[in-house]
Fold this protein.
Amino acid sequence: MKRAALLAAVVTCACGGSGRDVVPETHDVIEVGGSAGAGGAGATGADGGAGADGYQHVAKRRHGVVALAEGRGFAVGEAERGVDQLADSFEQCATERQREGKLVNGAVRVVARVNADGNVDGWTVRASPGAAVAANVLLCILAPLKAESFGAGPPRGLAIESDWAPRP
């Protein structure tokens, strides 16, 4: 019983926040050269290598966007491939959640630690308020991220931001 109360308190605190940190919907198409480190889509330099929009990589899908805000310690393209896989898993989950009538507008920022085995072994989560948003975050972002393997290597870290909404 105490564990259930503690889990509920942790989930409630992790999903709190007074503001809404979102990536606005856009239909802009920005063509970027392939040079890493100069703000290109594959940039993962030691300084973060962010492009003009502040993100290293943005994966847009029908129900939302998954953006790599920062990847530390990853080989060029490794974090971007992970974000693309996460965005694909997110889209499948969001489609199913919408079909069930459980997808609501939301946003999340996840800062994750990747261990030497390539597995996510810890994270900090800040999400839009609400139980329905928390459920979407757990099922459509955190579960696929935890299941993802980045391959063995030095400990690494990444920050991901996502914004989503039901679509007609």
